[in-house]
Amino acid sequence: MSTDDKYMVNPDVSCRIEDEDGAILYNPDTDGVQIINPMGLEIWETLSSPHTAAALVAHIKQVCRAVPEAEVGKDVTDFIASMLRKGYLGIVERTDK
Known about the structure:
This protein has a single domain (6-93), classed as Alpha-Beta Complex (Outer Surface Protein A, domain 3), CATH 3.90.930. The protein is 39% helix and 26% strand. By secondary structure, it is of the alpha+beta class. It is globular. The strands form two sheets. A three-stranded antiparallel beta sheet has the order 5-1-6. Strands 2-3-4 form a three-stranded antiparallel beta sheet. α2 (53-63) crosses α3 (69-86). A hairpin with a 5-residue loop joins β2 (14-17) and β3 (23-27). The chain is built from three helices and six strands, in the order ββββαβααβ.
């Protein structure tokens, strides 16, 4: 994962919001289901347009003030890596440096 890569949701994945508990994602390409918590849902909704990991971390720090700031970077990076592996997210702009 490059710091300049831009990530975006897979447009084929559907998202069903489950009140304050988060959401359920369904990937028809893999027939996979993923449950995401409220912070994951915030990340998911933000990635409806391309963002770098750094921009995403800055956004999450603004809107999820209850999450300890020291944890936000790791949580966002882990979420992106997991969702990329499973096909829920994609890289829409790659910067090879």
